[in-house]
Amino acid sequence: MSLNRLFRLISIALLMLFLALAISLVWIEWSIYQNGANSVPALRNFRLALIAMEKISAERGPANAYMGARQQEKPELYKSLQAARVTADAALGRLREALEKDPAQRQSSALDKIRTVQQALGPARTAVDRVGQQGDMQRSHLYVVSAVNGMVDMIPVMVRVTAELASAVDQADPDLRDGLASVRAAASLREYAGQIGSRFTAPLITHRKLNQDEVIEIGRLYGRIELLRSLLGAQLGSYSPQPEFAHALEEVDKQYFDNGFQFLDYLLQIGLKSGEYGITPSELYTRYVPQMKSILDLRDLLLDDMLARAERRNVQARNFLVSVIALTIVACLFFQLLMYMIRKRVVQPLVTATDLVAGLVEGKLDREIPEARYNDEIGAMTRALRVLKERILERNSLAKEREALITQLQTSSNTDFLTGLLNRRAFFSYGEQQMGVAQRYERELSIVLFDIDHFKRINDSYGHQAGDAILRGVAQTASQLLRKVDVLARYGGEEFIVLLPESDLAQAGAAAEKLRAALAQKEFEIDGGRRIKVSASFGVAALNKGQGLEQLIKLADKALYVAKEQGRNRVEVTA
Fold it and tell me: Transmembrane ranges (predicted)?
């Protein structure tokens, strides 16, 4: 008997027995129950995401306070900051653990975003620590704003995580949609309230008036906060008439809008006029952050109510489902027999075949394809899949060999064979990109050109193998002394070139002097265990408007020529 005929006969029997009863009752009630069952864990995941976002946002308070702290305050404020970081990490860890255990979220993009936030927190916190460790006069506006923005940038990713988890709740139980909107509005209000406080950090630390960009950003946040306040009132009115929600909203008005929001408005007026705020970031954190607690209380009240509603509906759906199943128990006995036949001959083979096809499409070639048990259509498909898998493995093997060869050729074309540095062609390719970025965004960029003094004499005296050893040693020494963002290349012969992004002429000159001193002090080992010393001459030039890369290199070359004329083993800088 063919598979199609077997499936048709079973389908007729199933339709006769369960079309009216099972499909109309059990299936409908099971769907209702399943959605209710999914809504509770989905709500808990959503709550963990909101808490994690709030803890990351709350970390900005002690971070801002630490960055603007006086020397005697730093130890205590840093302890507070570390505690906030531990709390934020723990909240993120709980959220990640919950999603990894949830089959519906295990492969979700929300989990990838959480991992991204966990990885990005390290550099953002390092930037905060770097500013906090600097003295009062060293804290520049640029570094402070960059550190503040580094922490703020975590929030958009977390907002997308909460949006995805809120969508899962909405799909599981659409009746919670109004509550979800209210919770997200409260969470957004808390975040914007925190961000607006962070916008005052840099002016407070650097003791200056607000600049135009800051005033615009604060105004934008003011508008969003006022809009969210109006939206919360409307949503709560439609969500529930219970008095505790109205009371919680009144507390938000009293604690935050009447106190915290007015305090920020006072700071805004000072920032527009004089910049003499009279408070430190630590005092701002102490006075402002507690006023936002009422927003979190409202959020938690909404979440507790939503969970209670979801659990009640889940219990009701479960009880009704049990009643329906009890009424159809006799029919289910015969249904189990039919389902066993379908599962054995149709469902299981189809599921297995579907999984195998999906695995091959996704590149999961390690899964074994079983032998066909029946001489039917699925058996023919299984045999075809075995052949297809063999063809894919062969193709992948050829593709890997081709990619490896291409990678090897690309590396060889960009690398100097002797020193392992970039060659001249690769340097120009990378340098043009950096030049374009520097000119577009008006950033600093410098070039250092240097060569080994009397290199021909080394070759003549010790041989070319010794010269090669010196070139490799100079390349290694220079690589160890430069920053990761700096680009070192062999320019030709005994000449080397360094591209220094974000470095002005003075910084580039200092870097060149550091290289010169290191090379002059180092002894290089050549063949036979002999050790010799070398020196190098350096030419330095910095980017001015309208210059190209070749023009900048020519200026550095001129400075290098002057260094040689002035006796070598020196650094010459050209304006």
Answer: 6-28, 320-342
